[in-house]
Amino acid sequence: MTLLRATAVAAILATAGAAQAQTTTISFDALEQPGYFGSVFNSYSEGGYNFDSSFLGLLSSAHQSSLAYAGSAGLGATFLSTTTLSRADGAAFSLSSISLADFVSVPGSYDVTFVGHQVGGGTVSQTFTLGGGHSFADYTFSGFSNLLSATWKEGALHTFQVDNIAASVSAVPEPATYGMLLGGLGLLAFLRRRKNAA
Fold first, then answer.
1. CA 36 from chain center: how many Å?
2. How many angstroms separate the CA atoms of 49 and 45, rounded?
């Protein structure tokens, strides 16, 4: 009886493990190259995520000789533009952390606001204060889950770059996983009924 119960519990635990979130760190390492001039492009894709700009284009600051280089490859955008992050497959996703650094700005600290557009029409927002330095600092998101997209806007006097975006999407269980769950639950129900009958 103990072996049957252990088998049922193992099946349920295996099902739970199969549906865990898959985390991706978007590092923009593919953009890293030497030189003084950054790259300009309308969109960028990495790890199943798309980045699109509303105005003129996205900018790579990933050039080690560039004045805007912040220690690793990063992605910025032109002033007053809005960058949109979304999944290439349209799936919902979550954001847990991001690295931010100054791109081209007047001196002084400034705020950067991220807006998450959630499944079902709701939004969540969070504002981080950047110190104005050309080195990346890490920031943690709170409540940025079940998103269809996330957006952020560059300022007129302050522009910034992003790096090391930690994003995750929940794995979709295979049909066999559902079968294992139902089998495990059925076995537990059978054992409980048998125990009650005794």
1. 29
2. 6
Number of Cβ within a 10 Å radius of residue 115: 18
From residue 172, alpha-carbon distances to 21, 25, 72 in Å are 9, 20, 33
Q: Which residues lie below 8 Å from residue 186, measured CB to CB, with a gap of 6+? A: none
Residues paired with residue 125 on neighbouring β-strands, in sequence order: 115
Per-residue pLDDT in tens (0 to 9) along the chain, 198 residues: 565 555 544 555 555 554 567 899 999 999 888 877 778 898 999 999 999 999 888 988 778 778 788 989 899 999 999 999 999 999 999 999 999 999 988 999 999 999 999 999 999 999 999 998 889 999 999 999 999 999 999 999 999 999 999 999 976 554 555 566 566 556 556 666 766 766
Quickly list DSSP for 93-116: BEEEEEEEEEEEE-SS-EEEEEEE
What's this model's pTM, rounded to 2 decimal places?
Answer: 0.77
